[in-house]
């Protein structure tokens, strides 16, 4: 009997014991990430339509839970742009941003999405996240990046109703107070320029921290807030309030379920890409199911912290790696940084211009744009390109209900998958000069014998492909009456279902009525077991079955 292993339920017990040298590296990396995380957390809270303080709440306990129960040591769990946008899109039609109702819905959304992820991981269903295919991800992320940037432009330039239906009224308000727009735009575009220069010339330097400090200092010195500029404002000091979520209606709960499931899949796909990159660079293994558990518990913890759904951040995970982090201990130093800010230094965030926060959102998101991926998909497979384009368009059109873009993409993916498998590759084969059975048409090969048709199906034999195989064989037999033997080469068939067995039985009966004998070669074990249990092997007879293609060629081919 297997002994009980407590480490299975508490994976952080597997952490390596730190040394003084590793702790120094982890401390440097952790504080570097923490100083970047603080302004990012506030920025992503505004993107999610939440109060600024909830961004810091989402960066504390959820980050701790995520690293304790996750599987990737350097994955930075916390507020992320894509998850924040999904929160905003999911709740836009239900409440007013930053209102009590909005916060209550965001908390429930965090709990539901976390429960979905936890259950997927607990039941070892992590591979279900692969339902969100690469074309869907390409289409959704490009659309989401465009939406995020567009949503931040009004704040960046200081014109809240920039995209309103009354451009004349907007122009009039700008004309009344041009200095406000100029001042706000100067902070916003100045921050963008500095972030771009930092990324281009000093990619490992935390430019976000420098921009935040400089923007806050200039805002204070120049009197940006008294002059009418929008700043973060007061953030209450202290730990997050651990309370039960407020009550909402059953209809609202039901609305959140679908949004929570899509958010769970998308945010985990985002985190999964970070885990893969980190695992490759560090040559480590990671467990997708354990990571689902960690991410799910982090979201639930975020909900009970009064915050919004968190996810794995690619940019902060990369910074963790570049800064020299050795282990998950680095995250504990990041948490210490956030904790100190919550307890003592929230006053310093008062003067951060919101236009600077908009720049902090726009610049990292800009790197998500990859329109070249559409061109690459089109070159590989046009149906994959169509899936990406449909996902992109539906996501934009369905704004603010962004999850419909993902639903449309997954649905079209399933349709394309079924369509592809309904048209399997079925070819006539013959003996190649290397002694194997190859495509007769491609290599211009003569038949093994004048009365023999050798057929190969390069797909599973199931309810999608069975009819195509039967149609291919019977049509050839009808058009070529000299055919008296059929050789089915099933070496490429690695799966068969009840419909596939029925297809073989029906085909054998039809061919027998036409005076044609059926032979089969290279049956794989898993297919053999099914056919044997169905009694078809005995009905066909061992004299009509060959273990290899070479045996079939030797027995059936005409002498040459």
TrEMBL record:
Residues 450-556 form the STAS domain. It is found in: Membrane. One of its GO terms (cellular component) is membrane. It is a multi-pass membrane protein. The chain crosses the membrane at residues 27-47, 59-82, 102-123, 135-157, 177-196, 208-227, 256-279, 321-345, 351-369, 376-396. It comes from the Bacteria. One of its GO terms (biological process) is transmembrane transport. Pfam families: STAS, Sulfate_transp. This is Sodium-independent anion transporter. InterPro entries: SLC26A/SulP_dom, SLC26A/SulP_fam, STAS_dom, STAS_dom_sf. Keywords: Membrane, Transmembrane, Transmembrane helix. CDD domains: STAS_SulP_like_sulfate_transporter.
